[in-house]
Write a structure and sequence with these properties.
The protein has seven helices and 25 strands. It has about 375 residues and is α+β, with helices and mostly antiparallel strands. The protein has a single domain (about 35-365), classed as Jelly Rolls, CATH 2.60.120. A hairpin with a 2-residue loop joins strand 19 and strand 20 (about 300-305). The structure holds 1-hydroxynaphthalene-2-carboxylic acid. 1-hydroxynaphthalene-2-carboxylic acid (1HN) binds near residues 97, 107 and 116.
């Protein structure tokens, strides 16, 4: 039996829909918008709430026995409709979480196509193994396990270890390119000295002569001292009007981002710094490493303090403020700039009015440990 003819436009639309086709003439306006429409929204998670839930998870499950990893991940309310559980979309491309490892636990070895990085928040006992190298985790350190590198973690101290994870999970998942391989051993064998790559790069900006060729992870650990010294050296310059004093973590064999698909930065906002606003295509996840202040995102004020996480989505105006008159504020952040640049999507625009400052039209109310039960969407 042949499909029936369309007598008018309405019937044509109905027929096309039933036949798994679509009319471009009535759909094109949804796509060809003047500005991008971001599913993720500006959002902030408080440290105390994340830590409370992680503590509960510490009491309820054990890493290595039933759970491969103990991490609480951040779901942007704008991504929450994706199955399963928003697939970890803090932004449309990036997953972020806080992971806890208790003394003696071993998070077993695996490798995956998603690319991963960590920023150490608390604890001195964290040790990771990455492609045969044991890596020491100290607070403020930035560590990478790029795509398809074997990694496992443990905690050799008697205090828990906490760190931020960031992976390109939503991006990889969207492309349906998530492959994982589980190591035959719980912990991979060590093939080089402990902290080998850090020692190999002891000279900082001088590089071993074998590294003229591009490598995916020539340096696995970037210490807090490296980032802090980098920022210290910038203080001789005028402060950047948008970002304060900021450095990015790079791969010494390429000069590009340390992690091939995720950009990472450490920025310092001097006391009483009030940055100018701008917006860009790449999305950012901020982790407040030290200090307190606020960020105005599209006119909404997000107050932050140590340990909080803030998402600034694609094309959102944002400006940072350090509210302390004594202390520097340090923001660690991850972004999808490498992805945006790879496909020529990146654009940046300065806020055109009011000397670069937005008006605050609302104040964001985060869910707090002592908030009454409320809808999160
Ligand atoms: C993963 O392998 C780790 O190795 C953390 O610690 C978070 C999220 C999704 C997929 C793999 C880790 C992850 C992950």
């Amino acid at each position: 039996m042949s499909r029936k003819d369309s007598k008018n436009l309405e019937e044509l639309h109905q027929n096309l829909e039933q036949e798994n086709m679509g009319p471009l003439w009535s759909s094109i306006h949804n796509l060809n918008t003047i500005e991008p429409k971001s599913k993720p929204i500006p959002y902030l998670w408080k440290k105390e709430l994340i830590h409370k839930r992680l503590k509960e998870a510490e009491n309820l499950l054990k890493v290595g026995e039933g759970a491969d990893r103990r991490a609480v991940f951040l779901i942007n309310p704008g991504m929450a409709d994706l199955e399963p559980v928003g697939w970890g979309g803090a932004t449309q491309t990036l997953y972020a979480a806080v992971q806890a490892v208790k003394p003696g636990e071993i998070a077993p070895a695996h490798r995956h196509t998603t690319t991963a990085l960590r920023f150490i928040i608390n604890g001195h006992g964290g040790r990771g193994r990455v492609n045969g190298e044991k890596i020491t985790f100290e607070p403020g350190d930035f560590l990478i396990t790029p795509t398809w590198t074997w990694h496992d973690h443990t905690n050799i101290d008697d205090e828990e270890v906490l760190w931020m994870d960031c992976l390109d999970v939503p991006f990889t998942n969207f492309l349906a390119t998530c492959f994982t391989e589980f190591h035959e051993k719980k912990q991979q064998d060590l093939t080089v000295e402990d902290d080998f790559s850090l020692k190999r790069y002891n000279g900082g900006m001088v590089r071993p002569i074998d590294d003229r060729e591009e490598k995916i992870a020539p340096l696995g650990r970037y210490t807090w001292k490296m980032a802090k010294d980098g920022i210290e050296g910038l203080k001789q310059l005028d402060v950047h009007p948008v970002d304060g004093y900021a450095v990015e973590y790079i791969n010494p064999t390429t000069g590009k981002d340390a992690n091939d698909r995720i950009g990472s930065r450490m920025q310092m906002l001097p006391p009483e710094f009030h940055g100018k606003a701008h917006r860009h295509v790449h999305s950012t996840i901020y982790h407040v490493f030290k200090g307190e202040g606020y960020t105005i995102v599209n006119g909404e004020r997000f107050d932050w303090s140590e340990g909080d996480f803030l998402v600034v989505p694609t094309w959102a105006w944002h400006e940072h403020v350090n509210t302390s008159s004594d202390n520097e504020a340090f923001l660690f952040s991850t972004n999808d700039l490498p992805i945006m640049e790879a496909f020529n999507f990146e654009r940046v625009e300065d806020y055109p009015e009011n000397d670069g400052h937005q008006e605050v039209t609302s104040v964001f109310e985060p869910i707090r440990v002592d908030s009454s039960a409320q809808e999160t969407k």
